[in-house]
Known about the structure:
This protein is mainly alpha-helical. Helix content is 79%, strand content 0%.
Amino acid sequence: MIMNWSELTTDLKGLMRSLRGDTPDVMKAFSGLAQAALVPKALDVKTKELVAVAISVAIRCDDCIAFHVKAAMEHGATRQEVIDVLGMAIYMGAGPSVMYASHAIEAFEQFTKAAAPATTAA
């Protein structure tokens, strides 16, 4: 199954916006937790997002994969860095993580293509 990762993140953002309206206190607290966790300290934001990619694969969360692969890329993560953390996720999560690692690399490839400038035919 090929997932459209860009479409998934767009759809989820709309659903999460609705959730924020329905449970504002909970979502405000969750947002605060996310912001606090991403403050650069011993690790920079890119590294933290790469850790989140590995955890997303190990816990088998496609939605998490989509958001964290995109965020890691936005903070400068390379394909090789994503591949390296996928190796750790596979090591920690065994067979099921192999399957979800394929989802993360597919997401990376789709986001890369989407970010590439459009070429015009000559």
